[in-house]
Amino acid sequence: MLEDVREYGEAIVTYVDDEGYPFSYPSGYRIEDETVILEKRDWLKKRSSDKVSLLFNHITPLPTGGYMDRRYIVLWGGVEEKQDEIRFTPSRRYSWDENRVHFFQYCEISVPRGRRYMQLLERELGRKLKPALSLFSLFFRVTRLPFLIATVVPTLLGAAVAAYHGIFDPLLFILTLVGLAAIHLGLNMANDYYDTKLGADNVNTTPTPFSGGSRALQYGLITPSAAVAMFSSFYALGLGIGLYLAITRGLVPILSLMLIGFVLSFFYTAPPFKLAYRGVGEIAVGVGFGPVIVLGSYYVQTQSFHIAPLLASLPVGILIALILYANEIPDKKADALAGKRTLVVRLDDQTVMKLYKALIALVYVIIVLTFAAGYAPFTTLLALLTIPTARKAIKQISETYGNPYYMIPGLATNIKLATTTGLLLAVGYIIPAAYNILLT
Amino acid sequence: MTFIPNHVEKILENALVCAFTCIDENGRPVTHPLLPLYERGSGNIYFTSSVLFSKKLEYIKRNQRVSALFSNRRFIKSDEFHVVLVQGDARVLEEDIHHGWEKLLPLWRKKEPYIDAYVKQRIALPLFWERSIIELTPRKLYVWNDGDMSREPQIYVR
Fold this sequence. Notes:
CATH topology of chain B: Pnp Oxidase, Chain A
Shape of chain B: globular
Helix content of chain B: 10-25%
Radius of gyration of chain B: 16 Å
Largest interface: A-B, 55 and 55 residues
Oligomer: heterodimer
Order of helices and strands of chain B: HEEEEHEEHHEE
Number of helices of chain B: 4
Number of strands of chain A: 7
Strand order of the largest sheet of chain A: 2-1-5-6-7-4-3
Helix content of chain A: 40-55%
Structural class of chain A: alpha+beta
Shape of chain A: elongated
CATH class of the largest domain in chain A: Mainly Alpha
Largest sheet of chain A: 7 strands, antiparallel
Distance between the termini of chain B: 11 Å
Structural class of chain B: alpha+beta
Number of domains of chain A: 3
CATH class of chain B: Mainly Beta
Largest sheet of chain B: 8 strands, antiparallel
Number of strands of chain B: 8
Distance between the termini of chain A: 81 Å
C-alpha cells in the first residue's frame, strides 16, 4: 500500500477538528514497513479507525504557467502517538498518476458517474440536462464527420477515371457524392448504435479521436432512438438518390452495387451478420470504400464498367481498410472483451504489424503495375510521393503500438496516407483529362 | 471588506494547487488537490468541479464545512511564502453547469494560461466541461508565517 509513497516531498495530514471542520497541515514523513511516521505536532491528538487522511501530491510547475506530471495518493487510517513520533497506519487508499492512467482515460472511466450526477441534477433543477454543444459541434461529433473523406476520395477517383476516359458530368458527380456521403454517415451512426447495444463501445475506456466510436450515446449527447432516427434518415436519403441514379443511369448495375454497399455498410456491425465481429470487417470496408464506390461513381458517369477503375480502386480500398485496421489497435482490449473478433484481436501483435507493412507495400506495387499494364496514365505515379508518409506511419505506429494516446499521431498519419495517396491518384487521372479538354 | 490580511491574500492568489478537503457521509475527511481561484474583494475562494468528478459536490451538499490548505512552496508562485489553512463554508453553484463556470475564466487563465485552448476543444470532452462551482467563504485562517511549522499558527477569524 505504501510502495510509491516515498516519492513525495510532504504529507498533508487531515482530520476533522472539534468544531466539525477539516483541519490540515503539511508534515515531513518516512515509511517504516506498513506505517507512515509523521512529525509530532501538538494539535494532532490520537484519532483511531479511518478518520485521518494523508494526501501526497505532486505536480511539476511550468515556467510558462500551469503544471504537468500530476499524481497523487490519498490514504485513510488511524494515528497513534509513540514517544516523539506519530505513527499512521493506513487502511484504505486512492490514487491517480497521469503517467499510468492518462487524463482522457481517467475522464472516460468517470463518465457513468458524470451521467448519474447530471440525472440527480435534473431532478433538483426540474429540467432536462445534456452536455452543451453547438448544433454543428453535435452533428460533427455524432456523425464523425471528418471520416467522410473516406467516401470523398474514392467517389472522386471513380469520376476522375471516367473523365480520363472522356466522360464527366458535374451534376451527376455531386449527386453521387451526396448519396454516398449520406450512406457513409448512416453507417457511422449505425455502427455506434450497434457497438453500444452489443457492448463494445461501453467497455472501451481508451477511445481516441480515431477509435472507440463517437461516444455520443455514452455521453448522452443523443438518445438511442434519436440515433436510429438519424441513421435511418441518412440511409433513406442515400438510397433515394441511389434509386434516382439507378433509374436514370442503369437500373441493374447501380442497384447491384447499391445492394452490395448497403449490405456491407449496415451489416458491418448490425446483426445477424455483424461482419466486424467476425474478423471480416476490414475486408468489408476495403471492398465497400474501394471497388464498390469507385466502380459506382465511374458507372454513373459512363454507364459502363471497365477494368481501369477496378484497378484504381484497389490501392484506395486497401488504404481505407488500413485506416480501420490501425484504428482497431487501441480498441483491441475492449473489442476482445465485447467478443468483437477483429483482425487485430485475432492476430498477434507482430503479425498485425507485418500485415500492415505488407499491405502498404502492395498498394504501391498495384499503382506501378496498373501504369505498367497501360490502364493508368504516367501521372498516377504521383501517388508514389506518399511513400515517405507511409514510412512515417509505419514507424509511428510500430513505436507506439498498443498505447492508445501515444498512437494518436501515428493514426493521424495513417489517415493522411490514405487520403493523400487517393487524392494524388485522382489528380493523376484528372491531369491528362484536363489536358485533353484544353486541346479540344 | 475581507478579514484576510494582504500577505495571506498573496498566497491564495498565487497558488497553483491547494489541498481541498470536504467531509464524507461517514465523517471522514476527503482531500483532493484542486486549482484555487481566489477573488479579491469578496474574499471567497472558488473551485470548479466537472460532473465527472462529482463525489465531492455530493459531500458538500450534505456537509458544507470544508478547508483548503496552501502549503507546498513549489506550488506557490510568489516571493513570499506562508503556510495557510482556510476553513470555511462551501456551497455548490450549479444553476448553469454549461456556462456558469466561465465567469471564472479570467482567474483561471492567470494560473493555467493554456486553458482557453482546452475550452475551445469542448467537443473533445463534452462532459468534462459540464462544471459546478464550489464557493468557499472563509471563516477562520491558520497562518504559519514563513512556512515555519514548528511555531504556533496565527489565527484570524471572520
